[in-house]
Amino acid sequence: MPQMAPISWLFLFITFSIILITFNAMNYFSFLPKSPEMTQKSIKQNPMNWKW
């Protein structure tokens, strides 16, 4: 059974690393967060006064 040369393992590692970094960068930059004005209006404060 033939074995892979070390340069082939290095090429595979570099290839999969580039694919992983590219995929993560695309997912990171494609996310659009909501504007902070909308999130602050939706926060409802309900103070709880405990009377022991």
Automatic annotation (TrEMBL):
Subcellular localization(s) per the UniProt record: Mitochondrion membrane
Cross-referenced InterPro entries: ATP8_metazoa
A Gene Ontology biological process term: proton motive force-driven ATP synthesis
Gene Ontology MF terms in the entry: proton transmembrane transporter activity
Bilayer topology annotation: Single-pass membrane protein
Domain of life: Eukaryota
One Gene Ontology cellular component: mitochondrial membrane
Segments traversing the membrane: 6-29
Keywords: CF(0), Hydrogen ion transport, Ion transport, Membrane, Mitochondrion, Transmembrane, Transmembrane helix, Transport
The protein's assembly and partners: F-type ATPases have 2 components, CF(1) - the catalytic core - and CF(0) - the membrane proton channel.
Family of this protein: Belongs to the ATPase protein 8 family.
Protein name in UniProt: ATP synthase complex subunit 8
Source species of the chain: Neuroperla schedingi
